[in-house]
């Protein structure tokens, strides 16, 4: 029995060494952004993700959510098993090293798999490089002008009497419209070609809302998950944001900008309004930090109809506000900072730099 136990320990230590070595190789590889962009993000990942979506897109239900659900159940059962053993077998010494080794191996395997199937995208050159944009700090004047333009566009598209999509058709219509919008955008930007759609309504709608999550990408299944509890007029933008993740734009500012860029090329008025409204919220929030008086003046430019939608967003956030959200936000903050996004949750707002650079380039052309 002791020989068998030693054999298992040896195998686990070998596996530990292999995982650490593999992660070290990945770490060294990610320092070469040219390699990441040209080999991983433009060759390996698109091939893998497209074929993965071809499989999961055949199903109406989410494989990724099923996996998450089973993982949560497994973790709870494992935790209860440890607690039960501690309470009922106090006379027996618990092998702390074995427990630590198993947890460490599990964490390293998850990390390795995550990096291999998606995470290396965090180190790519990205959309700014593809469009030759100068992703640099904007001036207050540039942010003010951008905010004016966004407010004006949001007012215009809201005035077009964009109707609410029927609840029973909401996901079907929004998802298909998003796919069509990417087809339109791909005519101008070939790197935005989106093949084999796999977009699903999240099975954890209420939980996601309480955690402050509007959408997420499942790397293991290649599925884009959308929280359908979110106010309907934001869903087109959220869907495009998650599709951007599917295409390998891992950083949140890039996924936001891709969704905005697709809206610029799209003929879909719902998406355009969603994009402009979302960006108005980002722009004015950041302007408020720089010049609160100016930001308050901008609010007066927003039409009553758009303000009503903003009130709906506020009411939605208040409805699901609870003790769980700050915990999830903190964990997600750590995740973002650990994946090339040092500003954490504020990384979403960095889309404004890309937007200013984009419009600055258009003016110069």
The strand order across the widest sheet is 1-3-2
Secondary-structure element pattern, one letter each:
HHHHHHHEHEEHHHHHHH
Main sheet properties? 3 strands, mixed
- Overall structural class, as computed from helix and strand content, comes to mainly alpha
User: Low-confidence runs (pLDDT<50, min 5 residues)?
Assistant: none
Rg (CA only): 23 Å
Shape: globular
| Residue-averaged pLDDT | 86
* Strand composition percent: under 5%
Helical residue percent? 55-70%
Q: How many DSSP H or I helices? A: 15
* Number of beta-strand segments: 3
- Tell me the domain tally: 2
Determine the N-to-C terminus distance.
76 Å
Describe it:
Helix 7 crosses helix 10 (252-265) and helix 10 packs across helix 11. The chain has 365 residues and is mainly alpha-helical. The protein has helices at residues 2-30, 33-56, 63-88, 96-117, 127-131, 140-158, 170-186, 205-210, 235-246, 252-265, 269-290, 292-301, 304-319, 324-337, 351-364; strands at 199-201, 215-218, 223-226. The radius of gyration is 23 Å and the shape is globular. It has 15 helices and three strands. A three-stranded mixed β-sheet has the order 1-3-2, sandwiched between helices. Helices cover 68% and strands 3% of the residues. A hairpin with a 4-residue loop joins strand 2 (215-218) and strand 3. The termini are far apart. The protein has two domains: 2-63 and 92-123, no CATH class; 128-364, no CATH class.
């Amino acid at each position: 029995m002791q020989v068998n136990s030693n054999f298992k320990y040896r195998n686990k230590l070998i596996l530990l060494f292999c995982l650490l070595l593999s992660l070290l190789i990945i770490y060294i590889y990610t320092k070469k952004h040219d390699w990441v962009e040209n080999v991983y993000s433009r060759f390996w990942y698109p091939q893998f993700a497209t074929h993965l979506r071809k499989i999961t897109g055949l199903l109406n239900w989410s494989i990724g959510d099923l996996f998450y659900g089973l993982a949560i159940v497994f973790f709870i059962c494992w935790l209860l098993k440890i607690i039960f053993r501690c309470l009922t077998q106090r006379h027996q010494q618990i092998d702390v090293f074995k427990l630590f080794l198993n947890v460490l191996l599990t964490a390293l395997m998850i990390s390795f798999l995550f990096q291999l199937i998606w995470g290396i995208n965090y180190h790519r050159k990205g959309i700014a490089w593809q469009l030759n944009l100068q992703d640099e700090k904007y001036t207050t004047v540039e942010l003010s002008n951008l905010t004016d333009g966004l407010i004006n566009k949001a007012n215009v598209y809201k005035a077009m009497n964009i109707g609410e999509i029927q609840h029973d058709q909401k996901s079907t219509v929004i998802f298909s419209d998003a796919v069509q919008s990417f087809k339109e955008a791909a005519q101008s930007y070939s790197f935005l070609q989106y093949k084999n759609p796999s977009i699903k309504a999240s099975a954890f709608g209420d939980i996601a809302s309480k955690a402050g999550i509007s959408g997420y990408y499942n790397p293991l299944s290649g599925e884009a998950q959308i929280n359908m509890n979110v106010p309907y007029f934001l869903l087109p933008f959220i869907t495009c944001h998650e599709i951007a993740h599917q295409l390998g734009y891992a950083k949140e500012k890039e996924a936001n900008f891709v969704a905005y860029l697709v809206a610029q090329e799209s003929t879909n008025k719902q998406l355009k309004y969603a994009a402009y409204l979302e960006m108005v919220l980002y722009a004015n929030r950041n302007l408020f930090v720089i010049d609160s008086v100016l930001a308050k003046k901008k609010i007066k430019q927003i039409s009553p109809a758009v303000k009503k939608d903003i009130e709906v967003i506020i009411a939605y956030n208040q409805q699901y506000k609870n003790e769980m959200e700050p915990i999830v936000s903190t964990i997600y903050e750590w995740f973002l900072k650990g994946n090339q996004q040092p500003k954490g949750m504020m990384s979403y707002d960095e889309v404004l730099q890309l937007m200013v650079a984009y419009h600055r380039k258009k003016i110069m052309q």
